[in-house]
Amino acid sequence: MSGKQIKNAQQETRVFQSRIVASVLIIFLLIGIIFVRYFYLQVIQHQSLLANSEHNRIKTTAIPPARGFIYDRNGRLLVENIPTYRLQMIPEKVDDIKQSLNELKQLVHITDDDIKELIKKQSLNRPFKPLIVKNKLNEKELSSFMVRKHKYPGFKAVPYLIRHYKYTDILAHVVGYVGRINDKDLKRLDKKRYKGSEYTGKLGLERFHENQLHGFPGSLTVETNAQGRVLKTIEKIPPVSGQDLTLTIDIDLQKTAYDALGELTGSAIAINPKNGEVLAMVSKPGFDPNDFVNGISHKKYNQLINSNQKPLFNRSLRGGYEPGSTIKPYMALAGLYYRVINLNYSMFSKGYFQLDNQARKYHDWKRGGHGLIDIKQSLVQSVNTFYYQLAVLLGIDRIHEFLKPFKFGELSQIDLLAEKRGLLPSRQWKRATKGKMWFPGETVITGIGQGFLVTTPIQLATSLTILANKGIYIKPHLIKTENPELTKLPFDIPESYWDVVHQGMIGVIHDKKGTARSIKNNNYLTAGKSGTSQVYGKKEEDVYNKNLEIPLHLRNHALFIAFAPADDPKIAVVVVAEHGASGSKTAAPIAGKIIDKYLNEILIQ
Amino acid sequence: MIYGGRIHHNKRHYIDWWLTAFILLLMSFGLVVLFSAGGWVLVKKQIIRLALGLMVMLFLAQVKPEKLAGLTPWLYVLTILLLLAVFFFGYESKGATRWIKIGIRFQPSELAKLVIPLMIAWFYRYRILPPDLKSIGTSLLILLIPVFLIFKQPDLGTSILVAVSGLFVLFLAGLSWKYILGGLVTLVSAAPIMWLFFMKEYQKQRVLTFLNPTQDSLGSGWNIIQSEIAIGSGGLLGKGWQNGSQTQLDFLPEHSTDFILSVLSEEFGLLGVTILLLLYIAIILRGLYIASQAKDTFNRLIAGALTLTFFVYLFINAGMISGLLPVVGVPLPLVSYGGTSIITLMAGFGMIMSVYNHRKLLKS
User: Fold this and answer.
1) How would you write chain B as a 3-class SS string?
2) So what's the pLDDT on residue B361?
3) Domain locations along chain B
4) Which of A133, A429, B275, B360 has the fewest CB within 10 Å, making it most exposed?
């Protein structure tokens, strides 16, 4: 070999050969480790990793059911689902999310806050999962996006169904609205059934009948790739759409009731006393439920909340009013039933009533009084002194006992949530809540529906149907049912007692002295009674004076209850016109319009 | 030295049939897997590369080792210059500068994988073995200059491979076990310093991900998790060719390149993995046998070191895709789709073959 002589070739070769042997050993050791690792993954971990790979591959997504439609009693569509578009973005397909969104601001109404929110959401999301940029694009937004969509890869206008309320303010308090499912909703809803769903009923019938309206989700099982792109469908189970609801509401009558209230706030309810079907139920003012479907804007919400007309307040269910003189027919019945008066009873109205040994005078609305008054005339002319005296004769205990089955102070149990209970006072109630004994003077004013009594319009309407039906109670309801349950009052009231009270109520409209003569219609007999509900505690002599000259918000509430035809009631109406001042002048004509519309137009057709 | 003592070795074309056969088998198996992972388009391109690689191998097999030794210092200088050129005129892609354009896109670090072991072998060619401290220092300098340049590109995978190929020469030259152990200890204790001062954020991230892949299961940990799922779900016999859902549905990342062994594992199971490992073992044993038969120090060192480097490719790749090692971007040798590494590896086998063809003929 050329080079240095000292090189020991044999020794070098020996060292080299030993290194080769060492290498082979190390290589076998390391390949052994590799093999063991693969053995571990492919044999020992096989089952669980196979499950992982199946889980990777197969994706099941829920197909939300279409929500049931809502129709009125004649099959007219009230609430539907309409196809609309939303703007979606798939983050991984967008180069510069912030810039794209800022550009899109010119085409679609999105705020800087929305953009901030989206960027935050996007960082928490899988990049291939679509994010909603804007719901419910209007036509201009949709078309201006569609012509420029090639400039915005990763953005897409996607069709979806949105709840649409064809009638807004008129029907808002009855149907309510759906809104996006939030954390609070998730606590009460069955998560399985709401997989894939975005909306749930929040208020009104939409909430109460959520179970029928919602339906059951289907599912779509697909094979996807890592980007989430669907490669093939493995199984599809179609969703079961929600059931449609057919209401008892007649939308024409509803509209009539709404319009009849005019500029006034208040409530108007019409029920068919024969079966408890609610024909119209208005709380005015209303609002537009469509605003709530995709989340109402703060500005709009604040407007609604801060309006002193309280449009979100459902007066029909939650408005508490003194019944005023509308209590009188029930008091007359009570007097007859407990035999403190008989059918031939009459008394002399001298203009005021005084308890024994008390100086305080309880006045009639007519100075000098009404003269000799029988039961019928006490109703026709709404004679206060008659009922002051009657109340004292009955005593608060019997008044309470008699009015309770008529649902005073009870819930009507109509199929809506959040109904408020009125108040039917009693000795026990006063002791329990005020810690004071019951005073006789409080019995006196209870006789004309004042003092502690509080009723809601729906409760007044329920009581009225029992009165019209001569003692048969049917729970008021908004969904058509075949055989509504009938309940009788727990006591028997002879036919003649009902008749005299009905006659009195007929006289309110048809007698020449009737307080509501103005709404008389010659086609049928109407039985009615007006009432006034005090807005604030005035001295009793001021109650009936100069009401029309004081500021609107201090005027008393005007009430009217009526049913017709009186001999065969087909409709019972309650009107509460807030600050309407006079039951007979303001509320009665509203009730008259509703009854006219129903009996003269709707039923004739 | 006298050549041609035996007539049949005096043919114009030299070829080692054993090595060639094993390599062709491995390549074929690789193409079958690649077809499943990337389809006919990739297979066609890969065949062209493999054919080119075979030609390079056969060409280098004819070159006398003496000629190669003579060129080695020049090649070394050229490599260093090219690596420096990358720094100044490099072509950046995916946050790393590894390429320069001289007519075609060229990666000088690939050249380094061959030239560095050659240079160290050349350095020890006439020196007394085992190496003394002074020569070790010199050879480490020869080694560390290009390794550092590659590491700074940054290209951790290649710098490791280059460093390892150089160190293998020292190991085969008889570097004392004392030094080897000392070096390993130093390396381990230097790791925290590397971490603090030299490693790039993404390299640290890879190590962290390796230590705890589930922590970042949607980011870089995703690759490892999906790869393990692919391997494990394959089981003993695999899901069948073109039936690997992890591969076909794109859950597996980089399935034609770095992660092609995951594809093989998913579709051919442990059986396929075993066959593949056996083919590699055959190639490696043949390479080491050739090294042991080499006629001189330079020849045995390059044949041995190149074979061992080939093994390291396999070990790192098979380890990283199965979660044993951090992901450092080393392809599966001769199987992963991709150009440069095939040419480099086949050039290496050409040199090994040349060593065999020009071995000591008259020995015994």
Assistant:
1) CCCCCCHHHHCCCCCCHHHHHHHHHHHHHHHHHHHHHHHHHHHHHHHHHHHHHHHHHHHHHHCCHHHHHHHHHHHHHHHHHHHHHHHHHCEEECCEEEEEEECEEECHHHHHHHHHHHHHHHHHCCCCCCCCHHHHHHHHHHHHHHHHHHHCCCCHHHHHHHHHHHHHHHHHCCCCHHHHHHHHHHHHHHHHHHHHHHCCHHHHHHHHHHHCHHHHCCCCHHHHHHHHHHHHHHCCCCCCCCCCHHHHCCCCCCCCCCCHHHHHHHHHHHHHHHHHHHHHHHHHHHHHHHHHCCCCHHHHHHHHHHHHHHHHHHHHHHHHHCCCCCCCCCCCCCCCCCHHHHHHHHHHHHHHHHHHHCCCCCCC
2) 56
3) 10-62+200-358, 71-197
4) B360
